[in-house]
Amino acid sequence: MEPSQQFRSHLFTLRVWQEEVGGGQVEWRGKVQLVTGNDVRYFRQWQALAPLLQSMLQDAAALSNLEKLVEAELPDRQEPGL
Which 3 state secondary structure label does DSSP give 59? Predict the structure, then answer.
């Protein structure tokens, strides 16, 4: 498989809990975090989870592409003594 065709995998943690919102009503809340980064998002409705994950994946891909650009622009540097 060509490097440009490789699929990257991402690991997320998902935490869900019930929170009282008053009048005996409870609401599910959630937190999703990209394990390899500091990206954390919160949600209050299950329908919001899939769009959050998509957004986080797009942000991770954009960051990865930016890092590759920066690496390509930097001159090769070697540590002294290597």
Answer: helix
Give the Cβ contact number of residue 45 at 10 Å. 10
Tens of pLDDT, residues 6-41: 557 889 999 999 999 999 999 999 999 998 878 899
Tokens 């609401």 sit on residue: 27
Please tell me the pTM assigned to this model.
0.65
Backbone angles phi, psi at 75, to 5 degrees: -70, 150
Q: Are 30 and 14 in contact (CB under 8 A)?
A: yes
Residue 60 included in any domain = yes
Using an 8 Å Cβ cutoff, are 32 and 55 in contact?
A: no
Domain span including residue 36: 11-73
Of 41, 51, 44, nearest to 12 by C-alpha is 41
Number of domains in the chain: 1
